[in-house]
From TrEMBL:
Keyword set includes Ribosomal protein: no
SMART domains xref list: HATPase_c, HisKA, REC
Species, as recorded: Leptospira wolbachii serovar Codice str. CDC
One function term, GO molecular function aspect: ATP binding
Name used for this protein in its record: histidine kinase
Lineage, opening ranks: Bacteria, Pseudomonadati, Spirochaetota, Spirochaetia, Leptospirales
UniProt-listed PANTHER family: C4-DICARBOXYLATE TRANSPORT SENSOR PROTEIN DCTB, SENSOR HISTIDINE KINASE
PAC domain span: 341-395
Class of the enzyme per the UniProt entry, highest EC level: transferase
Keywords tagged on the record: ATP-binding, Kinase, Nucleotide-binding, Phosphoprotein, Transferase, Two-component regulatory system
Response regulatory domain: residues covered: 8-124
Length: 641
């Protein structure tokens, strides 16, 4: 059994049926469960102390206490232990209150199917936090040892980044050189302390370092304010990008040489190794929230240069484009860290190019041996791929549920509509013969209205049946470009003369594995939606394009669940009314429509289901009053087999 799937869970629940349902859904997910139930407050107090739990799952309404007490009591005993509220008859807007109290997640009992995903996420985060704290204890100890060792042995270090010439000095280097800590670090100030002959020599060595990656060691004399000091100067150049490199160096005051030199070097490497090789993005902050250091993972994950944000306030610089809810949580986390309390928060992050990322963040403080807070640490785990996969899974579950629904009742409902349509048709033909009967003539509009409603109902059933047949479609290798041209020819025939249609399909065959009927469904549904959106546009325009892209050089890189290396990208854009930001995430939900009685809400969900079945996807980008673009990605075949 995978140790990650073993789960010790305390379920605080007065309903035995709910307790069994929770255990069952977790076991079905693959967890090996050791579970106990606490119904009364005394039972809860006893069990929370008797066992070592991985997670707490609690109802809110309990016989002689409630969920607030559960959260506060768990946080007193173990602040990092996740508490998940699973309850009913409680408004979702109360969720933020429980999250601020320290709950990991809030779920209605009607959404218990989501519980395994939440438990899996919180369990992974909890176990990771335990291992990270051990690593950080080691890191803090190493940093403290490094700082003290440098002071004892009079060893300072510096780093210069080229071509910007950004320079960092350690605290001990300021002391060795005799400069105030507020002095701006510049290497020219160091060289000004050298004797003239050594100054000329260091210029030559420095120029050689700039040309090639190597190291150099020498003994120099420093003319400081407090007198002459003999120092061992060690320099090393390192190129980390094609046009960027750094020079790292140490100045060791050997006027009174210490035997700790070797241990200092080891501890310095220990500190750099743990900090830079961590799989988590780490920000080291001062007590005002300014960025002191960020490790390599943070630079890669947040796509920000350390030199660009060093000295800036974390939330106002790194997270300046995040939503207000995320900024509020981060601010709260900083306040708790300043009180020597840890805080975990889920936030969204907007990259400079507009892409969205999601992070699980931990705030906590680093203290000295007396308990005084020295630094604030923010650790961030990139969970973007997991969020995308969860959303894709939820959408596929909707499609599967709708397919089951269709298979169960759609055919029977269709059979009921058929005779109704026949009877209405019969009435139309019979009553039209009696043109002189005034009462019959007055009822004809009603008969016509019934007929139209029945036609719409039949069309809706046909759409639902299309859902149930997505998995039964017959795919074959075809030239997507050729089929698009055929469909476009049909579209142009019935297209409104007011709409301008632009196409750029290239000249290269676009081989894919698809059902030709479904290709027609995709384009016709997109076209109908575009026509509806262009009703109020003074200059209606539709643009359709086809191009081949590489996965690693496209926005698919951030989707996270694609398998192919090459895709055919079909772009379908209009300059219509656009989609409101608050509903854009709902457009692929079955039966969601903005067309009122004119739409079924199944067009886009059908397209989504077809694309996922083919191993592709569909992405949307829209601006209100500017238009909407759908990008469909078909797995590419190099040749027709």
């Amino acid at each position: 059994m995978d140790i990650q799937k073993k789960l010790n869970v305390l379920i605080v629940e007065d309903s035995l049926a709910s307790y069994k349902a929770i255990v069952s859904v977790l076991q079905n997910f693959g967890f090996s469960i050791f579970a106990e139930r606490a119904e009364w407050k005394a039972e809860f107090e006893q069990r929370i102390k008797d066992e070592t739990w991985d997670i707490i799952i609690s109802d809110f309404y309990l016989p002689d206490f409630d969920g607030r007490y559960v959260i506060s009591r768990v946080k007193e005993i173990n602040p990092d232990l996740p508490v998940i509220l699973v309850t009913e008859f409680l408004p979702e807007e109360a969720a933020s209150e429980f999250l601020n109290l320290g709950a990991a997640e809030f779920l209605p009992k009607s959404s218990i199917i989501k519980l395994p995903f939440v438990v899996n996420r919180e369990l992974e985060a909890y176990r990771l936090k335990i291992s990270q704290k051990k690593a950080w204890d080691m890191l803090v100890h190493g940093e403290e040892l490094l700082t003290r060792s440098q002071k004892i042995s009079h060893l300072g270090h510096f780093e210069v980044i080229f071509p910007e010439k950004n320079t960092l000095w350690s605290l001990e280097l300021y002391r060795i050189l005799g400069f105030d800590f507020g002095e701006i670090p510049l290497m020219e100030k160091v060289w000004s302390l050298l004797d003239p002959t050594e100054h000329e020599h260091i210029k030559i060595v420095w120029e050689d370092l700039l040309k090639d990656n190597h190291s150099k060691e020498m003994i120099v004399t420093l003319n400081t304010k407090v007198g002459k000091k003999k120092a061992n100067l060690w320099l090393e150049a390192e190129r980390f990008e094609e046009s960027r490199f750094r020079i790292f160096g140490t100045i060791h005051d050997i006027s009174d040489l210490s035997e700790l030199e070797h241990s200092i070097q080891l501890n310095e490497q220990l500190f750099k190794g743990i900090f830079n090789n961590s799989s988590q993005a780490i920000f080291l902050l001062d007590l005002q929230g300014h960025v002191i250091r960020m490790n390599r993972t943070a630079v890669l994950s947040f796509e920000r240069d350390e030199t660009d944000v060093q000295g800036l306030e974390l939330i106002r610089s790194i997270f300046s484009n995040s939503d207000q809810e995320s900024i509020k949580k981060l601010t709260y986390g900083m306040k708790l860290a300043l009180k020597n309390q840890s805080f975990e928060v889920f936030v969204s992050y907007s990259l400079l190019d507009g892409r969205e990322k999601y992070f699980d963040c931990d705030f906590y403080s680093l203290t000295d041996s007396s308990g005084k807070i020295l630094y604030i640490v923010l650790e961030a785990k990139d969970i973007t791929e997991k969020i995308v996969l969860e959303r894709a899974y939820a959408q596929s579950q909707k499609l599967e549920a709708l397919g089951t629904f269709a298979g169960g009742i759609a055919h029977d409902f269709n059979n009921l509509l058929t005779p109704m349509l026949a009877y209405v048709s019969y009435l139309n033909s019979e009553w039209s013969k009696t043109e002189t009967n005034e009462a019959i003539q007055k009822s004809l509009p009603a008969i016509e209205g019934i007929s139209k409603s029945l036609d719409r109902a039949k069309n809706l059933i046909q759409q639902i049946l299309t859902y149930s047949k997505i998995d039964n479609s017959i795919s074959k290798q075809l030239d997507l470009r050729e089929h698009l041209l055929q469909v476009l020819q049909e579209v142009r025939t019935v297209s409104s003369n007011q709409i301008t249609l632009f196409t750029d399909l290239g000249n290269e065959p676009a081989y894919v594995n698809a059902d030709p009927i479904q290709i027609f469904q995709i384009l016709s549904n997109l076209y109908e939606n575009a026509v509806f959106a262009l009703q109020e546009s003074p200059n209606p325009k539709i643009t359709i394009s086809l191009s081949k892209i590489l996965y690693e050089k496209s926005e698919l890189l951030h989707v996270g669940f694609m398998k192919n290396t090459e895709y055919w990208k079909l772009g379908f854009a209009d300059n219509g009314s656009g989609i409101l930001p608050e509903i854009i995430e709902k457009i692929f939900d079955p039966f969601f429509t903005t067309k009122g009685g004119k739409g079924t809400g199944l067009g886009l969900p059908i397209i989504y289901g077809i694309m996922v079945k083919m191993g592709g996807t569909i992405l949307v980008n829209s601006s209100v009053d500017k238009g909407t673009e759908f990008d469909l990605y078909f797995p590419a075949w190099k040749t027709m087999l």
